[in-house]
Amino acid sequence: MRATVDKNGTIHISDFNPVQAYKIAIKLEEGGIAFYQGLGRQLKDEGARREIDFMIKQEQDHLKAFRALLLEVKASVDDTFEEDDIVDHLQTHIFDASIEKEVADRADHRHTTLEEALNMERRSVVFYQGCLGQTTDAAARKAFSRIIEEEKAHQAKFASLLRAKCIDRSDGCLL
């Protein structure tokens, strides 16, 4: 991994390896779990809380998958990317406490939680696509592509749930 600082002081990270890619994915999944757990504690609607529990389970499944992929590639790559390195300080604004509060405040219907889950997945995909664009290592590109596929599948699952809720709503869809 290479980090450079431009004249405005912005840090640019590039040239990831697959271990780093999966460590980032793991960190973001952990952030997603924490985000949804915090959101769930703030919601009054029982149905919305059940949906949040479902999303937490989905994030936990992703976390397990990314940990398994990390173990697969870790043996074959020289990893100088320590756990207390930049990944621990990664600020992507994909999961943010202010977003959590904002979503909880307007979560007067269950669509809101699914809409926000869908937005989180979209932001994750955009973030990983940015990482992919800054990566020249073929194995890391493959890792980021795999992560993007997983996140897009997650996105499709949440979109299907949201469409089903729209169809089932007697007072119309909020989308």
Concise description?
The protein is mainly α. 67% of the residues lie in helices and 5% in strands.
Mean pLDDT reading: 76
Strand residues, percent:
under 5%
Task: Characterize the biggest β-sheet.
Answer: 2 strands, antiparallel
| First-last Cα distance | 41 Å
Any low-confidence stretches, pLDDT <50, length ≥5? none
Using only C-alpha atoms, the radius of gyration works out to 17 Å
Shape: globular
Oligomer: single chain
Assign the structural class, choosing from mainly alpha, mainly beta, alpha/beta, alpha+beta, or little secondary structure: mainly alpha
The number of helices is: 5
How many β-strands, per DSSP? 2
List descriptors.
175 residues, mainly alpha, two-stranded antiparallel sheet, globular
List the helices and strands and how they pair.
Layout: E1 2-5, E2 11-14, H1 18-42, H2 46-74, H3 97-106, H4 111-133, H5 138-168
Antiparallel strand pairs: 1-2
Helix pairs in contact: 1-2, 1-3, 1-5, 2-4, 4-5
Architecture overview:
The chain has 175 residues and is mainly alpha-helical. It has a two-stranded antiparallel sheet with strand order 1-2. Helix 1 runs antiparallel to helix 2, helix 2 (46-74) runs parallel beside helix 4 (111-133) and helix 4 packs antiparallel against helix 5. The chain is built from five helices and two strands, in the order ββααααα.
